[in-house]
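#struct-queue
[09:14] JT: dropping the first one here, sequence first, then the structure tokens:
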Amino acid sequence: KILQGFFFFFYYTTDYVEEILKLVRRSHGRSHFALRWGLEEEKHADTWANSLLFSRQRSPAFLEDYKYNLRANVHRSKWEDDPLRNLIYTVFQERATQLNYLNLAKIARGQSEKPQHQHDADPLLAKVATTIAVDEAAHYNFFLEGVRLFLYYYPARTLDAIKDVLDHFMMPASAIVPDWNEFNEAVYKAGIYGPR
């Protein structure tokens, strides 16, 4: 359930990139960065899909049906028309996904604090989760620098936007993904991610 959930976050990358491109398409640097960021996120989707297949947790037929059903919905962020809030949201979302994967890697290294996962060591999964977490850290730092620029030039407006994003923060696509509640509960029980 957990790997499948991580897959669906990234499966909506085309929607995330489309939203960002609409906001920054007139900026050569920002629009091209969005394309490259999207490509990297899409590679993460493929990596999680392959993890599901090679762990034999899901069959190729299941995954094809699942992807088809996910595409029935379109992800739209709460701030799809607000570049500043969209940027700030991305900072928190990138950090949250990095923490997800670092905590999954701990479980996969056999270092879980939860008794039910004490014997769930999987060195290959630990490497996959760690590798993706490194990418997420790089994304987080890139977007954070953008927010720091806004804080410098527009402090009041940026702090207001940060508060708004934190007040409404949810992981992407959580409102449209099937089985979201089961995934959320599994992640919470495993100690991977929680309200704090």
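[09:21] JT: and here's the second one, same format:
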Amino acid sequence: MAATGTSTLSTLSSYVDRTGLERAKPLILYGEYGKKITIPQKNSKVYKARRYERIAPTGGTQSSNLRAMVEGTVPTNTTPTITDVSATVAQYGQYFIFTDQAQWVNEVSVDTELMSVNSQNMAETLDAVVRDNIQAGTNVFRLTDAIGGVSGAGRSNVAGVINAAALDKAIRNLQGSNAVMVAPNLTASNKVGTSGIRAGYVAIIHPDVLYDLEQVSGYKSIADYGQPATLKGEVGAYKNIRFVMSTEAKIFPDSGAAKAGTKSTTGTYSDVYSTIIVGENAYAAIDLASTAKTHYVPIGQPDHADPLGQTATLGWTAMATALILNDNWILRFESVASA
């Protein structure tokens, strides 16, 4: 005797998971390694700082020109060199509008999910503000080959993947500018295969660049550290550079040389990846106090624009910017990435 089954009595609907699916969330890093500055309200939109530059112990280039005094003679006075830097915060934000029926009918909680999306968008946007503002430094190495060639020429000359010789030059550049290292030493442990890690500058890299970095002789993954990594997003180290990684690292599509075997948006010119290498207090992440807010007007609150209260609005606003404090302590390291 045949039984009546699902071929006859088909289901009316599908089971719906009322928890929204997990979203991809990039690591927020650019605001992490800069100096945090908050401008109090009712002051200005402009942040300004002044640096009195170092006075060399010599009056010339040779040690014979040390500022020795002659007995009974008043020395020549010195005029200090002053450098001012400034930046203006701008307002950023976005919002959603959704209807009462979308809230009532949808199996997934619309307002809960949109609140989560809203917060994530705010964090990513403000981090991108910092990232894009610190790309403008003049201390730049553009890799012209994979054996250490670097140039300050145009971005269209970039043709080299990240490599040991170029990284050595980057370390020399920052050390020569007396840039203070951000990350402390990590000592070795008694575990087999682990080793101590030097104090280092912080470099923010893209995963595509990590692919090439792992081929560099002398690079150490955090798996080889003698202690747990101390930096947010840390993936490894090379001598005095500690690398942290985010998919939000800056890419200049199709801006490099025409080179086969590299990542390219169109397939003609190489994409150029910007790896920012920084010392302590090289840049500032700046905000205006108490302006970072979320805004939510729920369904059922009528006004002149929505007399029946049929919609809800959800969004955020914030005022922020970023500023390079010392151009010599931040190095933009531009390379291509292997396909």
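[09:30] RK: nice, looked through the second one.
[09:31] RK: The chain is about 15% helix and 25% strand.
[09:31] JT: good to know. Helices lie at 100-105, 110-133, 164-176, 207-213.
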